[in-house]
Amino acid sequence: MQRIRRALIDLRRGEPVYVGKDCGGLLMIALENLNDARLAAIRQISNQPPQLLLTAHRAAALGMEGASASGIAVPAPQNTDAEALAGMAHEWLTAPTQRGRATQGAESAALHLLRQAALLPAALAVDIDAPSLALKRAMEHGEILAVTETDIQGFNVGATRAPERISEAQVPLDHAESSRFVVFREADGLLEHVALLIGSEVDWPDTPALRMHSACLTGDLFGSLRCDCGEQLRGAVQTIAKEGGGVLLYLAQEGRGIGLANKLRAYGLQDTGLDTVDADQLLGFGEDERRYEVAAAMLNDLGISRVRLMTNNPGKIAALEAAGIEIAGREALHGALNTHNARYLTAKSERAGHWLDEVLRSQHSETHS
Predict the structure, then answer these.
(1) Which helix or strand (DSSP H or E) is residue 50 part of?
(2) DSSP strand pairing (192-198 vs 164-170)
(3) What is the pTM (predicted TM-score) of this model?
(4) Which residues are catalytic?
(5) How crowded is residue 332: how many other Cβ atoms within 10 Å of its Cβ?
(6) Alpha-carbon distance 129 to 122, whole Å?
(7) Where in the chain is the domain with CATH 3.90.870.10?
(8) Cβ-Cβ contacts under 8 Å for 51 (sequence gap 6 or more)
(9) Are the beta carbons of 188 and 207 closer than 8 angstroms?
């Protein structure tokens, strides 16, 4: 898995990665990092016509036909510069063609790799029937990394091994003075998550309260009105403290797992009229890219196997139960509804099945009062 971890870093730096074997594969680069110099370098390595690899979500959002469950491959428009090609990753709202072919093998693996790197899942790729001498030398010298599709498809960030407990300290909080922060680092070293233990563990109820909170820089730190995350975070801390103590897992899953940069891109699309689900899909993502194996592993490390979960998300309940955590009960957790987040919360309720009827009814009542 070490080569896969390095591949994630190389892709984020704008470097190409070879996906395949000695008998052939493809050379790919993250479309969002493409520039003229990198495009010229790829064309020097292969004279094959470049392909654009897009996810099935983006293909569907653009009205393209021919995608597999993983994605779609279409010929890159000819006589187009790198900047225009890079725009295909997220800026283009119309398809360059209405039909492509289903991605296969290494192509599907390449899109999976981009997702794991928290990049837009869109690539420029060229077929390599057999690595040229120049490409072989570049791989031998470590200038271009080679990975296999099997390794990629077996890799999910944070899901390979249990996270390691790294450090901890008492950190008194407003409304929860007895609080301890415990930092966990994923086995691949890429992400760190926090378990906030509220109250003295010896005084916890038999079934402690649990909140799994995905990081939201804009809401948690800056008080964004586009979501209810900050209010949910602070409300959870206060409620857990009042109920005798429990755990808040602060998970590095910005933007439902798509990362801060992509979340802001999605905000830009929402400003054009799309809801939060459609915006994410137009960028190439599913409605929710989060995984919760790491949360279950953190609970196991803390010796917690039975909880009362504070959530409006049925997916979190299903994920924890699948990982062997008993959910003894659920407690709703709502932030305030406002003109900026009403459409977002409505989409989460109607499109993603979140339990938000109570808070949305308050808007209806106020509108008709």
Answers:
(1) none
(2) unpaired
(3) 0.91
(4) 288, 290
(5) 12
(6) 22
(7) 2-153
(8) 73, 74, 75, 76, 107, 124, 125, 126, 127
(9) no
3-state secondary structure of 338: coil
Longest dimension (CA), the chain: 75
Cα–Cα distance measured from residue 325 to residue 271, given in angstroms and rounded to the nearest whole number: 39
Q: What CA–CA distances, in Å, run from 198 to 8, 49, 238?
A: 35, 58, 9
Dump pLDDT digits (tens) for 229-283. Answer: 999 999 999 999 999 999 999 999 999 999 999 999 999 999 999 999 999 999 9
What is the C-alpha separation between 61 and 4, in angstroms, rounded? 29
Number of C-beta neighbours around residue 13 at 10 A? 9
Superfamily of domain 2-153: DHBP synthase (3.90.870.10)
The answer as to CATH 3.40.50.10990 being correct for domain 164-253+290-367 is: yes
Q: Specify whether the CB–CB gap between 210 and 272 falls below 8 A.
A: no
Backbone angles phi, psi at 230, to 5 degrees: -60, -45
